[in-house]
Design a protein that fits this description.
8 strands; four-stranded mixed sheet; 5 helices; four-stranded antiparallel sheet; alpha+beta
Length: 191
């Protein structure tokens, strides 16, 4: 039984790399989520000393309902953060690059770029955190409809750029000449 990783995957297509955002991006989103969890857990302690009217029999049912709603939104928020992180991915195969951009739970865009359309590949790493943790952006310039593919906040952008160039160079000569204008040799630019 052949299993496919993405829609439209060919039977003879070999997947070289599946890329998701760097773990630090997920960590930042989870840190905000944990801050909200901390606020929820600290509410009883703070209200006991600074706002005892919230735990009086008059307001306690309303406060309990609001706390349950807050917990439901916390659970939903964690689900959305993890789902969007997992589903938003870039796949590099021996024939093409496929970007699955998960914009929300019900909205995603799938773009693909055949390797023979590549004109330029650029890796950008800016800032101290990005340099220390080795993540950044990769731009792939094409002559097609989508002029520039963007891999945002991915780990090892220079290695990904080198892999794309290596795969381009391994294409058979007749496949690289199928486009209307002969493609130039892509350049690697590291900023």
């Amino acid at each position: 039984m052949n299993q496919t990783l993405f829609p439209g995957q060919q039977a003879d297509e070999k997947i070289f790399l599946v890329i998701r955002e760097h773990w630090s991006v997920l960590f930042a989103k989870l840190a905000l989520w944990f801050l909200m969890l901390f606020l929820y857990l600290g509410f009883d302690y703070v209200s006991l000393y600074y706002a005892p009217q919230f735990i009086s029999p008059t307001y306690l049912p309303l406060v309990d309902v609001l706390k349950v709603i807050f917990v439901m939104f916390l659970a939903l928020g964690l689900f959305i953060i993890l789902t969007l992180y997992y589903l938003h991915s870039h796949i590099i195969t021996n024939e093409r690059i496929v970007t699955i951009e998960q914009k929300s739970l019900t909205h995603h865009t799938i773009s693909e770029l055949h390797l023979n359309q590549i004109q330029d590949v650029t890796a950008e790493v800016h800032g101290l955190p990005e340099n220390l943790l080795d993540f950044g952006d990769v731009y792939i310039q094409t002559a097609g409809e989508t002029e520039r593919f963007l891999f945002h906040n991915i780990p090892n952008p220079v290695k990904v750029t080198k892999l794309v160039i290596d795969l381009y160079e391994q294409l058979p000569e007749q496949r690289t000449n199928q486009t209307q204008a002969p493609p130039q040799q892509p350049q690697v630019i590291v900023k």
